[in-house]
Amino acid sequence: MPETATATFPLRVVDGRRLEKRVRDALDPGGTLSDADGRARQLPRYFYEIPTWEDAVGTQLAPNFHLWELVQSDVREASPLRAFPRYVPCAVTLLAFALERFRDHVGTTVHVAANGGYRSPRHALTHGASTHCWATAANIYRIGDAYLDTPDVIDRYAAIARDALPGVWIRPHGGGPGQVDDHLHIDVGYVVSTPREAPGEPFHPKLEWGAL
Ligand SMILES: [Zn+2]
């Protein structure tokens, strides 16, 4: 029964538009950001609520990934979002699936950098529609004993990621704008997740038709 399956996941789904104003302003649920080509990308509206850091540490998203690894941030995150409860877009579970599959292919530990998982639209490192704001991107700085800080190593693992994850996007390496030289950025695009138990407005078919 699906109800039983979802009941085992410990985090509550919340509608970001119903959070207190200062949190809502920082998360900008359902808002839009411009991508690098000037296209509007709609931000997530539904979030998992993380009551405490212990919950982030204790919540397993995949056999080798826990929630804390994907929500680590520092003072560069907006101050209303540095206190608990904290919020992460629901697509973070899908990112964990992707990272787990990548880990299977590399056969060793995959380390995500601080500020390298979810970042809010108000995070200091956010410029435009970064997929980090969707919780669908990860900056991987180390795999096993290898640090991803040379073109050879980054290229090697980028090839594995492309093979393991059809449709994945990898930021090109280099020192220029939009390029990276000290980690592997992988993302699965602007995925918005609406879990089955997510709240929402009642559906009014007549109003929908009237709006056409
Ligand atoms: Zn990144």
Ligand identities: zinc ion
Beta-strand level of the residues, as a percent range?
15-25%
Question: Radius of gyration from the CA trace?
Answer: 18 Å
Counting H and I runs of at least 4 residues, what is the number of helices? 7
Spans with pLDDT under 50 lasting ≥5 residues? Answer: none
Distance between the termini: 37 Å
What is the structural class?
alpha+beta
Q: Please describe the biggest sheet, giving its number of strands, its sense, and whether it closes into a barrel.
A: 5 strands, antiparallel
CATH fold topology: Muramoyl-pentapeptide Carboxypeptidase, domain 2
Name the overall outline: globular
Q: Can you tell me the CATH class?
A: Alpha Beta
The secondary-structure element order is: HEHEEEHEEHEHEEEHEEH
Could you report the average pLDDT, rounded to the nearest whole number? Answer: 93
Task: Give the fraction of residues assigned to helices.
Answer: 25-40%
The domain tally reads 1
Number of strands: 12
The CATH architecture classification is: 2-Layer Sandwich
Write up this protein.
There is one protein chain. The chain has 212 residues and is α+β, with helices and mostly antiparallel strands. It has one domain: 2-Layer Sandwich (Muramoyl-pentapeptide Carboxypeptidase, domain 2). Helix content is 27%, strand content 20%. It has 7 helices and 12 strands. Strands 8, 9, 10, 11 and 12 form a 5-stranded antiparallel beta sheet that branches. The protein has a 3-stranded antiparallel beta sheet with strand order 1-4-7. Strand 9 and strand 10 form a beta hairpin. Helix 5 packs across helix 6. The longest helix has 15 residues. Bound molecules: zinc ion. Zinc ion binds next to strand 9.
